[in-house]
Amino acid sequence: MDAIDIKIINALVKNSRVTTTKIANSLKISNVATQQRITKLEQAGIIQKYTAIIDLPKIELKTIAYIGVFLEKAKHYTSVINAMNKVPNVLEAHFTTGTYSIFAKIYAKDNIHLMEILSNHIQNIDGISRTETFISLHEGINKNITL
Q1: Averaged over 53-82, what is the pLDDT?
Q2: How many CB atoms neighbour CB 8 within 10 A?
Q3: Is 50 part of any domain?
Q4: 62 and 120, same structural domain?
Q5: Confidence band (pLDDT; 50, 70, 90) for 145?
Q6: Total structural domains in the chain?
Q7: Domain presence at residue 143
Q8: Phi then psi dihedrals of residue 62, to 5 deg
Q9: Which of 69, 72, 84, 88 lies in disulfide reach of 102, CB 3.0 to 4.6 Å?
Q10: What does each C-alpha distance from 108 to 11, 111, 124 come to in angstroms?
């Protein structure tokens, strides 16, 4: 990966719908060379997917919560993660060091909806002994990394 690859990645992180032509023009290289580099980055697994970032509060998902998950045993990690992945409102989950085995980010319509997600989905997963919930009052930073 060289400086041109990094500029291509940054352009795609900024706007995944940017055209190859626009990237090529900004880098002063051909469309073909730009597309070849993008393909190489995809094949190497550096670029894994293209996605849209949704303003979740605008679609009525206004509560952000972080859930600290305690596992009964560490060996339950894979099955718990697989089960949590099936809950649509769980957007992230990380196997962590420290107090919690898993730390997850959840979006909900409101606190009542959050309680339903926790009670009916998360806390019913085999292998979870208990959870601790932290409600975000405001998301001050939400960005992608720039290389």
Answers
A1: 94
A2: 25
A3: no
A4: yes
A5: confident
A6: 2
A7: no
A8: -100, -10
A9: 69
A10: 31, 7, 18
